[in-house]
Amino acid sequence: MDKRIKPPAPYHHFTKAQWSNLRADEKMTLSREDVKRLRTLSDPISLEEAEEVYLPLTRLLSFYVEAVQSLHNVSTRFLDTPDQKVPFIIGVAGSVAVGKSTTARILRALLQRWPASPKVDLVTTDGFLHPNAVLEERGIMERKGFPESYDRARFVAFLADIKSGKADVAVPVYSHLVYDVVPGEFVTIDRPDILIVEGLNILQPGELPRTGKPILFASDFLDFSIYIDAAESDLRDWFMERFFRLRETAFQDPSSFFHRFAQMSEKEAGALGKMVWETINLPNLVDNVLPTRGRADLVLKKGQSHMIEEVQLRRV
Ligand SMILES: Nc1ncnc2c1ncn2[C@@H]1O[C@H](COP(=O)(O)OP(=O)(O)O)[C@@H](O)[C@H]1O
Ligand SMILES: CC(C)(COP(=O)(O)O)[C@@H](O)C(=O)NCCC(=O)O
């Protein structure tokens, strides 16, 4: 039985063909080579898919950016304050292995090529995971990706800094190779026009403070949010396919945390990969990621072949 929860919010539903018609005269600015370069391991997105799905989306986003800018102008007129650039923040959520990175990278490339050449930055939320030493100390090393594995206060503070126009905001860097946050390594985000934030947890509520302190959720800072959706069985298959590909590539590196998987027999490694899916990523999907789907402005629903089959757009 499909355990996915129906989004409570009312959405417009589109088939892929209906959605792609909304592209109107939005021009394709990526080549087949660009799409190949931007997609991640095991994501087969084609130029045609990018045109059909992402051009209507970039057209929609250009309307949203304009609308948010107008709202901002209203507030500066009301307050009689000087006009200040406020970054537009897009969130990309969904399960491990659903293809968030590919979506975020394609979107970034398309938005950068808008006529006004906006500065578009991309961050992944894994940089806000607690380092392994902290996870170990708290006994939650097996809960990486779960809400409590992130420094949520730091993540919210980061988004607040970006929204308030702060320059040179530092973001910690997570390495899949060493399976940990890299000490002392940061990327700097400097007043972008658009920021894309990609991660499992982007639509999740934060912890409620025990005292009467004010609370903000990451989603309070998002101007537009996208949830990439797929059936549990497809996600498991994609995770396992990627796992076996990584075993032939990244895991071969002796410094990879998962190097031992490259040295085991295929059967043994497969059993361990399956265990990672079943004991970490699947429960996190069911308990913490999927319940946030109904909060997204846009839901992109993928079929077994990774292609988007249905689009849902929240009514405003
Ligand atoms: N163990 C790993 N080693 C190297 N790269 C990885 C590993 N796990 C995931 N990745 C890469 O990290 C990125 C993010 O993966 P993930 O969080 O599953 O999100 P998604 O598949 O939705 O983009 C992807 O580009 C993926 O290929
Ligand atoms: C690093 C992740 C938590 C994803 O982080 P995100 O960028 O979505 O915040 C995830 O890819 C991960 O490594 N999960 C732990 C279990 C696993 O190895 O798949």
Describe the structure.
GO terms for molecular function: pantothenate kinase activity. Its EC number is 2.7.1.33. This protein is an alpha/beta fold. The protein has one domain: P-loop containing nucleotide triphosphate hydrolases (Rossmann fold), CATH 3.40.50. It is about 40% helix and about 20% strand. It is built from nine helices and nine strands. The protein has helices spanning about 15-20, 30-40, 45-80, 100-110, 130-135, 150-165, 230-250, 260-265, 265-290, and strands at about 10-15, 90-95, 120-125, 170-175, 180-190, 195-200, 225-230, 300, 310-315. The protein has a seven-stranded mixed sheet with strand order 1-9-8-7-2-6-3. A two-stranded antiparallel sheet has the order 4-5. α3 packs across α4 (about 100-110) and α7 (about 230-250) crosses α9 (about 265-290). The longest helix has about 35 residues, at about 45-80. It is globular, with a radius of gyration of 20 Å. The mean pLDDT is about 90. The site of adenosine-5'-diphosphate has 14 residues, from α4 and α7.
Notable characteristics:
single chain; 316 residues; alpha/beta; Rossmann fold; 7-stranded mixed sheet; two-stranded antiparallel sheet; binds adenosine-5'-diphosphate; binds ligand PAZ
